[in-house]
Amino acid sequence: MKLRDVPSACPRLWRSLRVPPAELRLDLVLSSGQTFRWWESSPGAWTGVLEGRVWTLRQERDRLWYTVYEEEEEDGDACPEKDGDGCPTGAAEPDSAEMERILRDYFQLDVGLPALYRTWGAADPRFRKVAKDFPGVRVLRQDPVECLLSFICTSNNHISRITAMIERLCCAFGRRLCHLNARPIHAFPSLSALTGADAEARLRALGFGYRAKFVSGSARAIAEGLGAEGLCQLRAAPYAEARRVLCTLPGVGTKVADCVCLMALDKAEAVPVDTHVWRIAQQRYGAVLGGRSLTPRAHQEIGDFFRGLWGPHAGWAQAVLFCADLRKGQEPRSRGRAKGCRGQDSHRDGAP
Q1: How many other CB atoms are there within 10 angstroms of residue 236's CB atom?
Q2: Residue 234 near residue 222, CB atoms below 8 Å
Q3: How far apart, in Å, do the first and last CA atoms of the chain sit?
Q4: Nearest to 315 by CA among 269, 266, 256, 259
Q5: What is the pTM assigned to this prediction?
Q6: Residue 339 a catalytic site member
Q7: Handedness of CA 69, 178, 336, 306 (dihedral sign)
Q8: Which member of 82, 255, 267, 339 is catalytic?
């Protein structure tokens, strides 16, 4: 980003780290249904909540620019709105090293993406043909509780509706962080906030339908069992064990479990499978899979097929093709409204 591109009123509020587009494309990653807490707040600027703070990210050539906003004071004073130059006038001055660590961890920047693209392309001509137009698609490393409860909401749903549901969930149950341009922004709810006796009824009133009992039920099961820390510790467990544990939770089938394994629990080999992916495996790759429906056996066979094709980061390769399918099915400027993504009716209908 050129110095003149940084709001002149407060250049000290912005920091950056070097991330070439081949390693990260914000516009592709944050709109492809991995997460539902980021929005394009102005052209090229993405605002969202990460680790209990509100961030705005911008990408310019090989730099990722970021700023973090102050939390609202207890007396209700909001973090100031943007000034005339679009500058977040109330941005905080957190520790630079810690902020960079958070971003590097969230975007898993220690994983070299171009080398993986070359490996996948060498093994799969179909991938090579599609992926050349979609560089920088990474898998996020999300908070396990937030990822799990969010993906429970994706069953029979699509991105715009899921995003609205998560927004209502956070507004109703989460701690208010600040206001930006008169928009209140809240943290993702704690487990304790979602385990009250009236949580399911409140979620139903917010339009969650049958998902209400799964969200509140899983929150309660985690709080009374593993705890948030135990859920996070599944990052160190084998993939099969982590998936098995997740599938014991209300509303979590194999597909949702694989989404959480991939996007929160460091299981790069996890390949979330829905009927769409199943058809792709059969029709585009000629995979011979038993049965005529997406049974647990078929799910395992499809995952094994793609792991054999793409290797230990198979879930990342599928994320690239998923992003390409999503963009192909969207009209210009319809980002976040189309089906066919992580929240697609067929792809995330993961209630058992």
Answers
A1: 10
A2: no
A3: 47
A4: 269
A5: 0.86
A6: no
A7: positive
A8: 255
The answer to whether the CB of 262 falls within 8 A of the CB of 139 is yes
According to DSSP, the residues that pair with 55 across neighbouring strands are 48, 68
**C-alpha distances in angstroms, 233 versus 33, 143, 204, 224, 299?**
24, 12, 31, 16, 25
User: Three-state DSSP class for 47?
Assistant: strand
Contact 84, 63 (CB under 8 A): no
Question: What are the mean pLDDT values of the chain's consecutive 10-residue runs (352 residues total)?
Answer: 34 83 97 94 95 95 93 54 43 76 98 98 94 96 98 88 96 94 93 95 96 97 96 98 97 95 98 84 76 79 94 97 81 36 38 32
pLDDT of residue 88: 43
The tokens describing 248, both together, are: 């014991």
Tokens at 93, concatenated: 């001055």
AA letter at 124:
D
Phi, psi of 188 (to 5 degrees): -70, 140
Backbone angles phi, psi at 317, to 5 degrees: -65, -40
Ordered DSSP codes for 112-143: -HHHHHHHHHHH-HHHHHHHTTSTT-------
Q: What angle do CA 342, 343, 345 make, to 5 degrees?
A: 120
- How many of the other CB atoms lie within 10 Å of CB of 308? 11
304-324 residue pLDDT tens: 999 999 999 999 999 999 898
Q: 33-81 pLDDT, tens per residue?
A: 999 999 999 999 999 999 999 999 999 999 999 999 988 655 444 444 4
Angle between helices 314-328 and 296-310 (to 10 degrees): 100
